[in-house]
């Protein structure tokens, strides 16, 4: 490949009330507000040396504008543009200066209809990792991954592995041998990008990395004491898949985020992807807890990179079912 | 009062398979096995300087033989015997030597039909608090409390406060002002004894104290890795009531235990009992999670101190309902 | 005894710069500031339901004005007054209204010259235990104990046990069988009051209770990030004696405080006090770390309850030496 | 470059008593013993999917036989051989089958005289990450880094960056602008390899990754309870440099290991290496604690890859001094 995708790097979420979002992300969860204006809030984690990893953008209704990946250099953007055009995907350039704090960017509608973005340059920001006096709420450290619901996981994950250079760490298959879900990475963690079979293209959640398990418990306590008990959708628990200690939250617009700690290093080319059977009760929650229906059914719509309209959704190719052990 | 009840101190549970129980309590949860014979396993926590706090006794079917309280001295037993007889309760003496590792003991059927026991003397055992090399599983430190389902909470908790000298730390009442549940203590923690309205007399659970919140998370991980995922009934979570970080487990016979950390000191006579409304969603789980039906409906039968038969159960006096927020 | 001392309850420390003290205790350590005026700052922990447990009082030079114990009722104050007068100690009454937020109080110079205070009434304050949104810094929960350097530990600890009703949980003795240090309690923790052989009467430190071990590590991180690295005098570490995970800090005036988690329940009358040999390297720090000289040599002067002057100090009766393993 | 070094992967340490080593590494620290024979113990961490990351080899005296790096493929070995030969370094091939569980390996004496090894193939082993029932002691997860004392840090770190493709995450320089120490990585953590100015070539320590900060505290408790208090050389503490929470131990032969948690992701090519001034008191220990002299002065000798003799040592090029703040 003539390009090097570094990692999942930022998302732009449309939200309906910036003040409500700020209260949730900044006051409760302790995200750092790098900057904001009447239309945007730019957020980052304590470990991040870049301007932001999450943009909240004022809009009429909630939607995902883009899922952004950092690449090695601007030259990589040209190579990626060529690849996506050859594959018949729509692309769009946002030149340097068109987006705040971000250099030249390539947006594409990917094979599942997800609105990706690639960029090499982002403004630096002071890294606050050792400003422990500023730690609060969840002590969020950095963005970790995107998890998307798509109608054809096998096709999506083949494209990411074969064309974009992602590696697979873990996957779920059905008794028929179909790929139900796949965890793919560029950086050396369990994933930058996960795909799950379902109505799509939709963003299921964005994962953020926390420093230790107690930070997740404290997040629950802080949310509850601020009246955000209803925002806690699932967890805390241990994922079988990825081994992470997790918590799923719904933000004021219903966007789902995962707070996450405890996966493992995926540096080795000879690491064998770990297979999970869809009916293994320890796959989703290692301890055997079932996830609530809303966790399976609800997710955020995504935007067409050219028209700005919501992308039409198709059902999952595999029969939509929760694992049988849940029934 | 002419006696001084120190604390909840031990329970005797009838179990149907000692080996299965040992695997659960000793191998998985890390209870210390002080001693055992063909009919009994005697268990204690790492902090305990006494022979045991839990006796598992081989029997045909699961049952609670007794809930034992330690008192200041043997003279207190006479005073307690007098009190219970005056109040019309059945009592029974077990003389020194009749029970292994326990001195003279008074057993009584309390006002709700619960099989209590009082004793002053128990054999000492090596305290293993600083034998960190022996820590495993849940790192259980000490017995903390009994929680019982009784048909008339108001009457039971009045007796414990007025006649036995317990203090109330927290309680739940209904919109009609009826006491739904009460947390009562002798030692300076939130409780030695809790009562909840329901079918009774039954033991809902025995609470054990852990050293820190991560020990609870590790317990889940260990249980799951040993195939005990189904034993995890509820949690981990934070109780609104008591503020404890908790986990509820069902042992191989269905007896429920709670692993528990993070309540507070209740030394002060001017501490005002904390009132919770039964419909406050933060009361049971501060984070708003609902408890499963089995947690509400299932509990262990208790034994008649004289006949050895199971005590007949009556429904809760207050209309049995889960809090409305759960519906 | 005709009185019931409940627990160590508050201290008044003279400090030279209230703003510097507030920055340390409130901004860095997260103590709750209940109230303040030009001369005082009243602080409490997140668990405390009473107005304050620490008063910082503006003065020309640092000193300890009083170490306060809560008693069961005002009648107990009369009984205590009688006892101390019979024993030949100076006493002084501060009537209701003379001290802010505190009812009638008895002050006495104790057998070692320490300025004690007893009171039954203190204004209530909102308990913030479940206001997790206010947790910061050390997440301090409650005052735990006083540790004092006195010239005759044996005499002091005999008085506290025989006349005041304290129980001994642990103690250190020398190879000659002399008591080098003693840990005494009224509430059911390892101590309310410790005595160590040394130049006295002086306050060595006040202990405050934290919710878990990670709170101690986070305190170090926060202090360092705010430029308070020099305030960390000793630790974090595990005490052999008491089993607590500890951190010793020096406030801006040099008063020493201990942040503390992980001792054990001392409810049982038949608990045998634990003996430590002064030369056991695990006694002070279970892991074997030596304490710095300043920790052994420096402590806060105390005030005469009648004259308001600093109490004259005498050397420790036992030969002042650090444990031999440190040499 | 025509090769891809993946990560630091294993070390072979010569030890004088395998039983003493096993007691320390396996019984106390909880390393997994994959296999052993009369001359070797092969150890791995709970996260590792490869046969071992540490080999303890019976020998007359303690020494470091080799520091091993995993590379992408066997073809990389040829390219590395070429590079080192061109640069005038001695190399030695160990063919497939010559070393247990390891494929073809290239050994070289690096620019500082350190005995490196490169290999692509290592036997797989069951990954025990989710066998929480086997967790004990330190719960060691995986090997993290090598830290070596060398006489010319600037030269060594230039070679690793320019010829071997390492990136620098953090470094220390003196007031004269000389590089005192450098932290270099291939995998996306703070380091695989650190160099510090000093008598060299020597191995200062091997770093191992733990799952959370409490695992480090528990390690101290377990070591102390097993009589290994003297093995704790420094910490626990927070490094300024790397931000890791650390503990330094000396094994029974004096080899130093670091238990380590809490550094950060180093995936980004535009991450600016962090500069620390040698006299910054927060560099070594963020909280300001000084390291003991032995930590500065003592380290393990290394072996000549051809002769098997100890490599002669030279003093550090920069004047050997501890940071001035320590004086």
From TrEMBL, chains A, B, C, D:
Its cofactor is Fe(2+). It comes from the Bacteria. Residues 7-121, 142-262 form the VOC domain. One of its GO terms (molecular function) is 3,4-dihydroxyphenylacetate 2,3-dioxygenase activity. PROSITE patterns: EXTRADIOL_DIOXYGENAS, VOC. It holds the Pfam family Glyoxalase. Keywords: Aromatic hydrocarbons catabolism, Dioxygenase, Iron, Metal-binding, Oxidoreductase. Its EC number is 1.13.11.15. SUPFAM superfamilies: Glyoxalase/Bleomycin resistance protein/Dihydroxybiphenyl dioxygenase. PANTHER family: GLYOXALASE FAMILY PROTEIN, GLYOXALASE-LIKE DOMAIN-CONTAINING PROTEIN. Belongs to the extradiol ring-cleavage dioxygenase family. This is 3,4-dihydroxyphenylacetate 2,3-dioxygenase. It comes from Virgibacillus tibetensis.
